[in-house]
Fold this sequence. Notes:
The chain is α+β, with helices and mostly antiparallel strands. It folds into two domains: 13-189, no CATH class; 246-341. Helices cover 65% and strands 9% of the residues. The protein has ten helices and five strands, in the order αααααααααβαββββ. It has a five-stranded mixed β-sheet, covered by helices on one side. Helix 2 (22-39) runs antiparallel to helix 3 (48-67). It is elongated, with a radius of gyration of 35 Å. 33% of the residues are buried.
Amino acid sequence: MALTDTSDTRFGLGDLLGLRGGAGWLFLIILEVTIALYMLKNFDEVSLWAALVGLFLMLSAGALMMVVPVDPLPIPVALFAAAAGPVAAAVIVMSLPVNGLQDSVWTAYAASYVLSVLVLRGRARIAWAGVAAISIVVAAAGMGPQLESRAVVGSIVPIGTVAAISVFAAIMRPMQRSLRVLREDAMLRAAAEATMSAADSERTRQLTRLDRVARPILERIADGAELTATEREECRLLEAELRDGLRAPQLVTDELSGAARGARSRGVEVVLLDDGGFAGVPEWVRKRVIDAATRELDAANAGTVTVRVLPLGRRVLATVLATAPDYDQRTEIDTDGKVSVA
């Protein structure tokens, strides 16, 4: 029943009642106004500081229960909400004049709403502890030659309100569990559909690329034509380029593929490897890796150039290793985009 809707929180009664987003803010406003209307009656009978302290405690408890997005509420938040009513009632009682008991009863009314929301947020036991505490405070305030009837009424008010909400929560709990299961199933289906859609999109992209780069030479082979030396070299370069697309899809760009093709045509052995380290890094960092690899490929005339994207969690994001009879250089690019050459 928090105001913010987060996907990682448990499915609580707030979700079932639709108290998210705009509805949650509306509920908070109504709750705070109701609490304030009850607590404002204290300003006529008790000292200003006591009335302000009681008002602040009750409004804070009501707001805190609504803005915390986790169901059930964290224990510290729940304890504060449960203690706010008894503490506010005690402060009011200490400032009551003779025959001023009615004001402590108004505090009990306000506290009953806070404790009822606490039940809806999954902390029924703590809420009932708060009910017991405020009932004791209100009942003790009426102790004298005899227990005044107003004190008895004031101590019963939170019990009746919280009991009604507790029964409601118990009735709704089976439906809550059913809806939680349905939502989890829907999330699993959505994840499976997204995975299948991504796989289908990647498959379509690869087939489109294969059709674009390989169809002409494949049609020549299918026609039974004898391939020239140039065409056989083209097949060798094409096979290496297609292999790059399978082993390092995140490295395959027009710029890098062109540089790799040119290096291979000059007799350089080019190896592209992608172990998944690009996931979660900014696009400009990926562009810096591709630029560094492209420079090495353009400059190589012999030997081997190996471009590897490392697995996730490494300090170094990618390496470009260029080796030749008279040349040996290792370039590292970390996750912050810093390039170092050794």
